[in-house]
């Protein structure tokens, strides 16, 4: 898997200060990168700025791996130029030292529950979950020098909203400058050395994803309050509501502006799926979250990912993609309508594709009676669900079918028909 660069999304009002929020330095810590994603989709900043790196180690996230090129959070002291992640590290360092950035919050999922003294195997000083980490109490010459006080106040905000008492947060001062050789290589200490007020929040890996995200969002809110950043949240903060945001059945992924697929409910494999003839990492992937991606595997399959979740596996057929076709006309339940390429079209009873000059339509799972043409043009026929072969549907409920449009040998895009 090649190294992927990360995205930076800026929520700005123009007033200082600026918080840099970073998720996903480790690809198997979904609490952090789901929190940044939900933050981006559901918070509005009213005063101050928040720059967000939703997922720093995207190539490892797509493989559900902590770090396919070793631990990325140990690469901030010295790093040879030959390291595969050298450019990514240089990029994030340049963002950290950017003069506009005043403070950094780094999100992690850690094991167990940190406690200053030994309680049991799950709760002790060697555990990393449920704590707020600083490298030192005070950072002279920085915009927010009282790191310890800010962490204390953030912790008390979190602890006012605990789901269970045993989730209680504690402060962990690693006193890095006094000889913590491991932490000296970490992102937050690089920030501290550059006079940037830096904090890390650890959500416990013992908790469900929505509970981890819940505590990360509390930490983000607590830090924003300490820095004087004002915000508005679009939902009532609770693990249940976060669960619904993460598992929203309406989430789609978009591929090269020609294809849109739902993330949930797909069959485990989709065959002869059109993808462009170019490297997988250069395929444009967008959609309703910052965690979407395509991940190639050794067996030629392409995994469609949403964070650490697998949406489906594609057995691709590669085409040159054509972007000339913008919309198509389809008669849906008796009424002719225009649809953009990439649309997901709800149909009650029947649909019929209106013929297009220069393009042909192929409904995957429908064969024109008495027509075995290799390159069918399935237009002008009214089609109902029982005329489609269910094994070609893309979803487990066998209600969604692909219509693919071609111009000669070129793939011009797809729409989906979703029968009710
Ligand atoms: Zn981590």
UniProtKB/TrEMBL annotation:
Matching Pfam families: Peptidase_M99 (PF17033), Peptidase_M99_C (PF17129), Peptidase_M99_m (PF17130)
The Carboxypeptidase M99 beta-barrel domain, residue ranges: 248-320
Domain (D,L-carboxypeptidase peptidase) ranges: 13-247
CDD domains in the record: M14_CP_Csd4-like (cd06243)
InterPro entries reported for this sequence: Beta-barrel_M99, Metallo_peptidase_C, Peptidase_M99
Domain (Metallo-carboxypeptidase C-terminal): residue spans on this chain: 321-420
Identification of the protein by name: Purine-nucleoside phosphorylase
Organism expressing this protein natively: Helicobacter anseris
């Amino acid at each position: 898997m090649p190294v992927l660069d990360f995205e930076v999304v800026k929520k700005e009002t123009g007033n200082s200060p600026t918080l840099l929020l970073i998720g996903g330095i480790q690809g198997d810590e979904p609490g952090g990168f789901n929190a940044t994603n939900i933050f981006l989709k559901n918070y509005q900043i009213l005063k101050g700025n928040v720059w967000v790196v939703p997922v720093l180690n995207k190539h490892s996230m797509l493989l559900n791996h902590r770090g396919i090129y070793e631990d990325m959070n140990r690469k901030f002291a010295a790093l040879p130029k030959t390291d595969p992640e050298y450019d990514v590290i240089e990029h994030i360092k340049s963002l950290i030292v950017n003069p506009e950035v005043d403070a950094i919050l780094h999100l992690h999922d850690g094991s167990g529950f940190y406690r200053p003294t030994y309680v049991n195997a799950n709760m002790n000083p060697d555990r990393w979950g449920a704590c707020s980490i600083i490298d030192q109490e005070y950072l002279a010459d920085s915009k927010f020098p009282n790191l310890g006080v800010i962490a204390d106040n953030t912790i008390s905000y979190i602890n006012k909203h605990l789901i269970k008492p045993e989730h209680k947060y504690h402060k962990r001062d690693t006193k890095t400058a006094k000889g913590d050789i491991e932490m000296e290589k970490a992102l937050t200490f690089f920030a501290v050395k550059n006079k940037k007020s830096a904090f890390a929040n650890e959500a416990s890996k013992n908790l469900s994803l929505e509970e981890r995200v819940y505590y990360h969002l509390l930490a983000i809110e607590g830090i924003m309050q300490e820095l004087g950043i004002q915000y508005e949240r679009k939902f009532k903060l609770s693990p249940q509501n976060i669960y619904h945001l993460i598992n929203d059945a309406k989430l789609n992924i978009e591929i090269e502006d020609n294809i849109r697929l739902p993330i949930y409910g797909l069959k485990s494999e989709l065959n002869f799926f059109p993808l462009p003839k170019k490297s997988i990492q250069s395929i444009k992937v967008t959609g309703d979250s910052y965690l979407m991606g395509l991940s190639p595997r050794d067996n030629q399959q392409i995994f469609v990912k949403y964070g650490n979740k697998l949406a489906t596996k594609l057995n691709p057929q590669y085409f040159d993609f054509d972007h000339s076709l913008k919309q198509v006309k389809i008669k849906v339940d008796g009424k002719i309508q225009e649809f953009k390429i990439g649309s997901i079209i709800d149909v009650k009873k029947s649909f019929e594709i209106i013929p297009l000059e220069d393009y042909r339509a192929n409904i995957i799972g429908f064969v024109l009676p008495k027509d075995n043409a290799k390159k069918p043009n399935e237009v002008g026929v009214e089609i109902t669900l029982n005329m489609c072969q269910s094994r070609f549907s893309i979803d487990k409920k066998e209600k969604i079918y692909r219509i693919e449009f071609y111009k000669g040998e070129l793939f011009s895009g797809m729409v989906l028909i979703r029968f009710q």
